[in-house]
Structure formats: C-alpha cells, structure tokens
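WARN no homologs supplied; continuing
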Amino acid sequence: MKIVLQAKDLRAVEAHLEAAYPNEGAGLVLGRANDGAVTVEALLPATNQREAEAQHNRYELGPADFVRAEREAARRGLDLVGVFHSHPDHPNHPSEFDREHALPNFSYLITTVAAGKAGATRAWRLREDRQAFDEDVLEIV
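OK structure emitted
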C-alpha cells in the first residue's frame, strides 16, 4: 500500500510529536483510500490518554478521539484511515505493544523523536493474521 502525505502535513505531525517529547504523542489520520493508495487529507492531533508514568513509551487514544475523528471524517467526506504516533528515542518501527493494539486496515505513521527533534517517519499496516506489520510506501508530495 502507498500512503501519500503532503510535506506540510508531515511538518505538522513532526511539530505535534516534538511538543509531546519526551512522551509519545499521537493523533488520527483522515483521508481517502483508492487503487492501493491512501491519500492523507487531514490530521487530528490528540492528547496522549495513557497514565502519566507510562506516556514516555506508550500512547493511548480514547473513545472520544475516535468519535471526533469519525464525525470530522463524515463532515469532510473522508474516512478515518490511520493513526500517527512517536517513538521517543527509539526506532520508528512498530513495537509489540503497537501490534497488540493495532486496528486492521489502518495505516500507522511512526516517527522517531530523538532528543526532542523529529526524525524519519515510516508507514506500517498490520497483516490480516495480526502477527506482524508490513511497511507501506510513504510518499511525501
């Protein structure tokens, strides 16, 4: 699968995740899926709902975040297509915790934030058997 993301939106993701550092930051991704590609149209930054002592290596989005995202997607004629989050001072590949909590058919954009500065972002999709992620092609336009 290919994920198409505008450079300005990537900068917005990076700014949100840098602001959350040293904790994990997160948000939801709205867009359109067609012909093997997901085009990102909007990002909804969210507050990490995880208990304070676990936010440095875990994020949690609450039901209200998903309701807000679904409503905003419907209002714009879009779909809720994924989640973005950071891995503070860790690689930008999914953790076992990410795999256990991932939703099917979502794109997961993971950004490394090292010493408060966003690094590379990669895109991932959970396999149907839920055993692992496959990397999506992330195209910045």
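The chain has one domain: 2-140.
OK
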